[in-house]
Amino acid sequence: MKIVVTGGAGFIGSNFVHYIYSERPDWQIVVLDALTYAGNKENLSGLDDNRVQLVVENICNPEAVDETVKDADAVVHFAAESHNDNSLHTPWPFVETNIIGTYTLLEAVRKHNIRFHHVSTDEVYGDLELDDPHKFTPETPYNPSSPYSSTKAGSDMLVRAWVRSFGVQATISNCSNNYGPYQHVEKFIPRQITEILEDRKPKLYGTGENVRDWIHTEDHSSAVLAILEKGKIGETYLIGANGEKNNKEVVELILELMGKNSADYDHVNDRPGHDMRYAIDASKLTKELGWQPVFTDFSKGLENTINWYKQNESWWKPQKQETEEKYKELGR
Ligand code: NAD
Ligand code: TDX
Fold it and tell me: What are phi and psi of 85, to 5 degrees?
């Protein structure tokens, strides 16, 4: 089995590479990644070159994509511009990578008849009211809010059309918010941990009542593998682990776990168009494919994540200053 993992040098993609490296020891893995600001070769360290190859190319380049995927058995597509705040500042790279990049991959897997799994987000469904008794299901209508989520929604639609019109052998997954080691310091949880490590205060957008449905990145990886191997072609699976928490609770827990006063954070300007709540109903995945999350204790998972950032300053430090300069420009 030879598998191409796009975006395999990013946060979730590299976790998936490590996961299949140990879970499927006879698989060859090719990582196709442009190494943007979000990609890091170090995320793949410790893996045997005989089994894992890194191809540094852009998924919008049709020749490079064709050459890389042509003899693969499957492509798992993680590569994306992934941060909402960046998409509100400069939307174009999101349109380019998320839509044109996905189109380019779809054309290549169509030509060579290769199994495709598309990794997407729950944000394509828009947001829920805090008191809505329903969660997102695969039947929830698409209603994205930001340039990021709308380009991910567009990429999902391309995959659906390529399945129906051209018979491409694809599945889609829409996952909730991931946390864990190796997440870029622009994202909520690592930003707060590293602000505290740099003796500054965490920064909560608006009132902090917005709810995210947290899942450990390794549970996302195990779900993607289950869908790749057992999922039904043409189907969409939602991935989540019943981890709803509001942002204020999360900031307070981070402060507490780091031995600080849990009220010691700042409220900063809210994100424009800020989605209120995401919540996933993953019953299709659990019932049909028998998948279950393993990291169900959020406090424990968060503590391990904090310890990882404490021990890996050399990994996050080079990204930190530039990230905070971007936030200063956005007033957040
Ligand atoms: P990330 O930003 O950490 O990593 C993205 C990776 O893609 C990087 O290695 C980057 O170099 C690469 N990349 C970007 N543009 C590229 C291009 N044009 N060509 C080739 N490579 C390119 O992202 P992440 O948080 O690991 O997210 C991975 C996927 O999972 C994305 O598709 C995202 O939409 C989806 N997702 C993320 C979350 C989350 O909480 N982070 C939740 C649900 C779904
Ligand atoms: O400093 C901050 N303060 C703050 O209150 C930051 C960076 C964020 N927030 C809030 C905004 C969100 O309500 O925290 C929440 C989480 O923010 P992000 O980490 O930026 O994630 P989100 O916008 O929810 O999107 C994430 O989950 C879905 C990923 O970045 C996406 O790639 C994924 O699709």
Answer: -65, -40
Residue 143 lies in a domain: yes
Query: Looking at ligand 1, which residue's alpha carbon is closest to its atom 29?
Result: 78
What DSSP string describes 110-127? HHHT-EEEEEEEGGGG--
**CATH number for position 157:** 3.40.50.720
Is residue 301 a part of any domain in this protein? no
With the C-alpha atoms ordered 36, 37, 38, 44, is the resulting torsion angle positive or negative? positive
Pocket, ligand 2, Cβ cutoff 6 A: 82-84, 121, 123, 177, 187-188, 191, 203-205, 210, 212, 247, 271
User: What positions carry a catalytic annotation?
Assistant: 122-123, 148
Question: Is 101 near ligand 1, meaning CB less than 6 Å away?
Answer: yes
Q: What is the pLDDT of residues 148-199, one digit of tens each?
A: 999 999 999 999 999 999 999 999 999 999 999 999 999 999 999 999 999 9
CA distance 260 to 251: 11
β-pair type (52-55, 203-205) = unpaired
Q: Is the CB of 11 under 6 A from ligand 1?
A: yes
Q: Does residue 293 contact residue 213 with C-beta atoms inside 8 Å?
A: no
Q: What is this structure's pTM?
A: 0.99
**Which residues sit opposite 115 in a β-bridge?**
74
Distances (CA, A) of 245 to 77, 90, 116, 271: 28, 29, 32, 18
CA 112 to CA 128: how far, in whole Å?
A: 40
Residue 204 lies in a domain: no
- Write out the residue range of the structural domain in which residue 30 sits: 2-179+215-239
Question: pLDDT, tens digit, for every residue of 231-268?
Answer: 999 999 999 999 999 999 999 999 999 999 999 999 99
Residue 332 belongs to some domain of the structure: no
**Banded pLDDT at 331 (limits 50, 70, 90):** confident
How many separate domains does the chain show? Answer: 1
